[in-house]
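Subject: sequence -> structure tokens, single chain

Hey, anyone have a minute? Need the predicted structure for the following. Not urgent.
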Amino acid sequence: MSELRIIPALSDIPAAAWDALRNDDNPFLSHAFLAGLEQSGSLRPDWGWHGHHPTLWQDGELVAAAPGYLKTNSHGEFVFDHAWAAAYQHHGQHYYPKWLLAVPYSPVPGPRLLARTPALRAELIDAILTHARAQQLSSVHINFLSADDDAALDASWLRREDVQYHWQNPGDWHCFDDFLNALNHKKRKNIRAERRMVAASGVQFRRLSGAQIGASERKAMYGFYLRTFIDKGNSPALTPAFFEHLIRAIPAQIVLILAELDGQLIAGALCLRSSDRLFGRYWGTAMDIPGLHFETCYYQGIEYCLEHGIVAFEPGAQGEHKIARGFRPVRTHSRHWISDPAFAQALASWCTQERAAISRYREQLLTHSPFRNAHTLTTACP
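Reply:
Had a minute. Here:
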């Protein structure tokens, strides 16, 4: 039988032991990413984040784990449950603290329950629920989990769904024109017009990774990130130390897209990558140039994928405007265990209605597909 240990900080777990549990190279589940958030001051108790990582050990070896946090609010999660918290308060009960198993600030689908074997994953799930009951927690939430994790949970875990927009290469696109040729005439024409508009403004682009990213580029990118939050009246969560750490710790998985005008950096997008996926995460600009956002955050990323054999690009949550630019609506999943039986029953009905609404919404989005119904590709690549 394994021993459950609740670890308050990822730095208390050896990086090699944690990373040995991962079955792919998704950067968001890496020890470097998760521990970096904590050590850089990007996760703070006064912002509602309290490290509470469930781990299983056998003979002193880590055999299963999940990134976990006791939350005293719902900020930075991207699965919105504020109505649930309000319902608890209305009935004189406490929703917070709740237990969140997720990657902070990152609505990126992927593994959440890391384990050496399926049996150990099942044991981890049982240990999580036993601990939640013992601590009298209102709920446990697993956000943006993988299909394997989803299948490992029983019906006592409520299911929620949402929609994101992902670019996916069917395998026969080798350059940007191949991608464009799969679109209908109107959408192909619009994308070409947007790209010409940015090029005509004189903006040029660089795509950097690893040792190519110097101090000036790192400083500029963090400044762009700050402006995005400040312009919207929000407080940025990530610190300069986190950006520095990320580029230093996993340089081969960082892709920095920079826009330059008259020798000055004016915009940037910081992406992460695995062996087969690109993830757009942080963006900002110092100038308002028509089409600059689309070029920096979408088209440059698509070109990078095509050049490097990456089959999928996830540019971030939300944004119906992505459909017209070649991104398809895909379902994302989260699962939720509610301790109170009455609330669990009521929320189960609520989740059923929400899933039906999301399904209708996605079907409606699919009717706006920019792709031709059928096409025979003749490569346009040189």
